[in-house]
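Here's what a typical entry looks like (Phosphoribosylglycinamide formyltransferase):
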Amino acid sequence: CSVVVLISGSGSNLQALLNHFQDNESVTISAVISNKADAFGLQRAARAGVPTQVLSHRDYSDRLAFDQALIQVIDQYQPDLVVLAGFMRILTPEFTQHYQQRLMNIHPSLLPKYKGLDTHQRVLEAGDTEHGCSVHFVTEHLDGGPVIIQASIAIEADDNVDSLAQKIHQLEHQIYPLAVQWFAEGRLQLANNTVVLDGHVL
Ligand code: GRF
């Protein structure tokens, strides 16, 4: 299974994937692509011997032109799966349709709650008692595609944005490799907008 990972920043989820699949012959991380030249994740990829490319959205006149160029770059690697790991761009329907059923994202909330940015802050403001993260298939709806796996924690009285960010990142690093592995093993599909794992509708 060839996997292309898209990042914009630190790439700690990318690192979790690199670690998880380093001795796994059935999953190859074929390339890491960033829209930011200074994304630290590019160094993580290089250290792991994975090819990297930078495609700056600033070099394109509009969202569609960038997404079309991005498709060209990604498809050089003929991926079976495209993984968004902190890729901070809103994608056009042209892009999401091109990778229909083979595009995943991880989001730091218990979807469908708290789509979009600043999830930890919003969870605290709402006084929630639990928080978590979700891996989902990507559709044209931002953070709205069918959920594959979630992990959650109880919120403690002394939690703040930083402590939650740290705790949620740790959970993310556990569940993202799992979802990618299921997909690579052919156990996980998106069919008629529902997630099927081992033949069961989730
Ligand atoms: C994660 O919190 C992920 O849920 C969100 O972006 C962040 C990426 O972190 N989509 P990292 O770059 O993998 O460390």
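Strands lie at 2-7, 28-34, 52-54, 81-84, 103-107, 130-137, 147-154, 188-191, 194-197, 200-201.

More examples are in the samples folder.
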